[in-house]
């Protein structure tokens, strides 16, 4: 599974919403002054989506995806329509969760918050939330909302789909050329605070000292616990200054001292692999996940269509046009 980030809680991920836009659009007959925060731009059953809701969504996505605000009314309308369809999908999931009694316990919420915050200190979280115009309580509510939607999707979609071995084998047979290992190296590293220590350590290594043993003794990098072993990695996965040095080394060769913002580094290349096709066993999990995602997307779209047909949905096109101009 991909690593979670704060974006999950802010609403960019964690909710499988595809926003097809296949809704019945109509003027809802309510006389409103277009553009005011409390004006209703859409209704989904008992849920009302206001101009304020849509504006907040627009501003958050603008910050998260770093896109410039559209310069024309046509572009603004297109972007806001897309986000409105997402809010409609979210409302459909909310109503279905209410109907089926899907809830998030305090224990589940606490665990999710702990996981999301594990790599963010309070100061960094504050900056991220401020940039996305949220306070902590709003963020916490967003986490709960996303987690509830995730539980609903797992119950109604994920529990009903599977990929068997025959499907994986057939896909590999037809598409084996798509699954390749890039050029890779397996390397070890030692990181220290100053150049003098780094040169002294390098002298020990070139003199025949065991790299793993020296890494455990001197290195201040977290991987020192495993003798500095970085495992296999390809181009583009490491900082440029590391990549340039490591990929030019031969197997068994030790690099010169390399300075970075973290400290002073020494690398040893353990093994180098040329690009090659993946064997079936190596590609298996990737193919299995790919096929699961395809089935999930298809089932989700069908499910959302069913929910759309079960609920009354209307969009106030006049209000939407006015706030997008």
From TrEMBL:
Transmembrane segments: none annotated. Residues 182-271 form the PpiC domain. One of its GO terms (molecular function) is peptidyl-prolyl cis-trans isomerase activity. The keyword Cytoplasm does not apply. Its EC number is 5.2.1.8. InterPro entries: PPIase_dom_sf, PPIase_PpiC, PrsA_foldase, Trigger_fact/SurA_dom_sf. Keywords: Isomerase. The keyword Isomerase applies. This is Peptidyl-prolyl cis-trans isomerase PpiD. It comes from hydrothermal vent metagenome.
């Amino acid at each position: 599974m991909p690593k979670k980030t704060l974006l999950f809680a802010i609403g960019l991920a964690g909710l499988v919403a595809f926003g097809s836009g296949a809704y019945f659009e109509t003027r809802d007959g309510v006389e409103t002054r277009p553009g005011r925060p409390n004006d209703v731009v859409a209704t989904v059953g008992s849920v009302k989506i206001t101009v304020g809701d849509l504006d907040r969504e627009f501003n958050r996505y603008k910050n998260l995806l770093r896109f410039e605000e559209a310069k024309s009314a046509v572009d603004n309308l297109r972007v806001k329509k897309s986000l409105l369809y997402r809010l409609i999908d979210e409302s459909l999931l909310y109503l279905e969760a209410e109907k089926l009694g899907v809830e998030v316990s305090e224990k589940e919420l606490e665990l999710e918050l702990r996981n999301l915050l594990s790599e963010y200190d309070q100061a960094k979280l504050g900056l991220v939330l401020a940039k996305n115009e949220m306070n902590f309580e709003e963020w916490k509510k967003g986490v709960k909302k996303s987690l509830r939607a995730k539980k609903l999707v797992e119950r109604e979609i994920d529990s009903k789909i599977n990929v068997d071995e025959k499907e994986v084998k057939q896909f590999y047979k037809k598409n084996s050329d798509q699954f390749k290992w890039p050029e890779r190296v397996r390397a070890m590293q030692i990181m220290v605070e100053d150049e003098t220590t780094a040169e002294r350590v390098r002298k020990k290594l070139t003199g025949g000292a065991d790299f793993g043993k020296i890494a455990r003794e001197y290195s201040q990098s977290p991987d020192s616990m495993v003798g500095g072993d970085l495992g296999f990695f390809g181009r583009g996965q490491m900082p440029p200054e590391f990549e340039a040095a490591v990929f030019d080394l031969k197997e068994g060769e030790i690099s010169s001292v390399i300075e970075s913002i973290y400290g002073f580094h020494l690398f040893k290349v353990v093994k180098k692999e040329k690009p090659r096709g993946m064997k079936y066993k190596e590609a298996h999990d990737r193919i299995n996940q790919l096929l699961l995602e395809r089935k999930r997307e298809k089932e989700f779209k069908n499910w959302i269509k069913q929910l759309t047909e079960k609920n009354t949905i209307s969009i106030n096109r006049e209000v939407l046009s006015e706030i997008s101009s």
